[in-house]
Write a structure and sequence with these properties.
By secondary structure, the chain is of the alpha/beta class. It is built from three helices and four strands.
C-alpha cells in the first residue's frame, strides 16, 4: 500500500520536477525565474510547497545565448510571461516557444526575429501587446 502511495506521489510530482530541472538549465544563462505554487493545497501542506512549484515567469532580457540554449523552455508548460528583449533571439530560437500555450506576455523588441519567425507563435493569444518602439513591460 505504501508503495502505491509513493508511486502516486512520484507521478504527481514529476511534472514539477521537470520544470525545476528546466529552470536549472536556464540559470547559467542568467535567467530570473518566477514561481507560483501548483497542485492541491493539501498536498503542498503535507509534502512541502517546494515539490509543487510551477515556473510562470522567465526573464532573459539583455542576456546572451544561442537558440538551442532555450530548449528548456519547452519543459515549462505553465509559463505565462517570457521576457526576451534585447537578446540575440532569432527565428530559430522561437521554435522552443511554440508549445507554450499559456503564454500571456512576451517581450521581443530588439531581437533578431523576422516576420518568418513569427509563424512559431501562431495560435498564441497574448494580452497587453505593446508597440515595439515603446516597451513598457
Amino acid at each position: 500500500m505504501a508503495a502505491i502511495g509513493l508511486g502516486g506521489f512520484k507521478a504527481y510530482v514529476e511534472p514539477f520536477q521537470i520544470q525545476r530541472r528546466a529552470a536549472a538549465r536556464l540559470a547559467p544563462l542568467g535567467a530570473k525565474i518566477g514561481y507560483e505554487p501548483g497542485g492541491p493545497a493539501w498536498l503542498r501542506a503535507l509534502f512541502g510547497e517546494r515539490h509543487f512549484l510551477n515556473v510562470v515567469t522567465v526573464h532573459l532580457e539583455g542576456r546572451r545565448f544561442k537558440s538551442d540554449d532555450l530548449a528548456p523552455l519547452a519543459d515549462l508548460p505553465g509559463l505565462e510571461r517570457l521576457y526576451l528583449a534585447n537578446t540575440p533571439l532569432t527565428d530559430e530560437g522561437l521554435r522552443h516557444v511554440a508549445s507554450l500555450r499559456r503564454l500571456k506576455r512576451m517581450s521581443l523588441w530588439q531581437t533578431k526575429i523576422t516576420d518568418a519567425g513569427i509563424v512559431h507563435l501562431a495560435g498564441h493569444r497574448f494580452g497587453g501587446a505593446r508597440h515595439p518602439r515603446h516597451p513598457t513591460d
